[in-house]
Amino acid sequence: xxxxxxxxxxxxxxxxxxxxxxxxxxxxxxxxxxxxxxxxxxxxxxxxxxxxxxxxxxxxxxxxxxxxxxxxxxxxxxxxxxxxxxxxxxxxxxxxxxxxxxxxxxxxxxxxxxxxxxxxxxxxxxxxxxxxxxxxxxxxxxxxxxxxxxxxxxxxxxxxxxxxxxxxxxxxxxxxxxxxxxxxxxxxxxxxxxxxxxxxxxxxxxxxxxxxxx
Length: 214
Description:
This protein has helices at residues 17-29, 37-45, 52-56, 61-81, 89-96, 110-116, 143-152, 166-174, 205-212; strands at 4-7, 101-105, 128-130, 159-163, 178-182, 197-199. α1 crosses α4. By secondary structure, the protein is α/β, with parallel strands linked by helices. The protein has a six-stranded parallel beta sheet, with helices on both faces. It is globular and about 50 Å long. 42% of the residues lie in helices and 12% in strands.
């Protein structure tokens, strides 16, 4: 029986994946570099993203370091000004909270995470969250989800992960945890063949999780 849910954050609980990409695209455009979206998505699967193409093209580390800070500013601007709500999240969390203990495992930086949740109540449903500074090796390595199990004192068999990217799915599978993938237009090209289940909307999670226990 499933007792614990470990949620990915960006793209699952808030619609931020695209805006993170756009912030990096904009920061690289400032130095005349065009970020290829398809390659970005392929790099993302391996735990790389914005800067991999620039490094491969020979952009120096000092420039990348400067533009990384610019990207961070752009991203926080988007977090404040763009609509990043996902339909049905709060209502569904309210239903799930009656039966499951829940936590968040995210690659978000703490400052971004705090800004996102400044005026939201998602965290009211969570026992804990682990952000990028809380583990050494990021997804697709299993460490983030293994640490989540440790925080709950749970076994993999008792738990389920909710993800939206192949990188996160790989992390969950490597940790031995069933993983439900919620459709996200931005990551739709990723290979989700190893997912335990796939759903079109967040609202489908209660019935889908229930089906894993029968």
